[in-house]
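fyi for ur records
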Amino acid sequence: MSSIQLVEVGPRDGLQNEAVPFSTEEKIYLIESLALAGLDRIEVASFAHPKRVPQMADAEAVIGGLSDFSRERGIGLILNERGMERAIATGIPEVHFVVVASDTFAERNQASSTKGLIETWHRVAAMAQQAGIRASVGVAAAFGCPFEGEVPPSRVMEIIEDVAGSSPTEIGIADTIGSGVPRQVETLVRMAKSRIGDIPLRCHFHNTRNSGIANAYVAANEGCDVLDSSVGGIGGCPFAPKATGNISTEDVAWMLSRSGFELNVDLERLFSATAWLSEKLARPSDSLVFRAGVFPGRS
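which gave:
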C-alpha cells in the first residue's frame, strides 16, 4: 500500500471564504476536532491583513488558544515578511507561502507580480530557516488563471525551479479556480516531480467544475506526496471570481482508503466535525460521503 498525507485546509482556506462569522472559540473547537480525527497537519490561520481577509483577523488568538496536540500540527499562511514576523511570534511550527503563476492574479491576490512574490518567498524562507520554522511554498493558479486564461506548464516549472532554491520543506501546485482536468494533472505532476528531486510534492484542488476528486486520484497515483482537502468541502478564493470549494476531506479520504492508500484519518470522528460545521453554516455539507455514508458500512 502507498501512503499519502492529507493537509486539512478548512479552518483557513475554507473559512476565509465564508460569510458566516466564526468566533475564536469556534475556530479552536473546529481545529481541535480535526486534530482528534487524525489529520496530521492543519492550516489553522492566515497572517493576512485583517481588512483583506476579515475572517482571519484573530490568527494570533486562535493559535494561542490551541492545545499543544493541535498546535504542533498547525500551519499558518503567510503573504509577506510582516506575516512571517507574526507567525514567528506565535510559535507556530510551519508556514506556507503562495506564489501566483499569473501576474494579473498575483496583483489581485497579493498586490505583487509573480517575480515579486518569488523574491518575497526567498526572503521569508530565510527568516523561517533562521527561526527554525518549516516553510513550504505553493504555486497558485498553476492549472489556469481567471483573468489570463491558460497558464503554460513551462511557466509553472520555471517558478518551481526558482522557489526550490530556498530549500522549501514542500512544493505545491494548486488548481485555485478548479479549471484543471486529470490529463493536465498527470502532466504537471510528472513534470514537477522530475524537477524537485527529494522535495515532497503537494497538490491542492478545488471542485469548482466537479473535477477535483478525479484530479486528486490522478495526482495520488502519479506519486504526489501530500493532498490538501477541506472538511465539508468548504472554501474558495475571495480574490478569484466563482472559485468555489475545495475537495472535501471526507470524500478524498474515503476514496483513497478504499483505493488502497494508507491514511491517518478517522472518518467517524471527522463526521462529527462535519455535522457541527453544517449546523453552524446552516446548510447541508458538500461532502457526498458524509451525506451518503461509508460503503460497505461505517467502521
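The chain has one domain: 2-290. thats all i got for now
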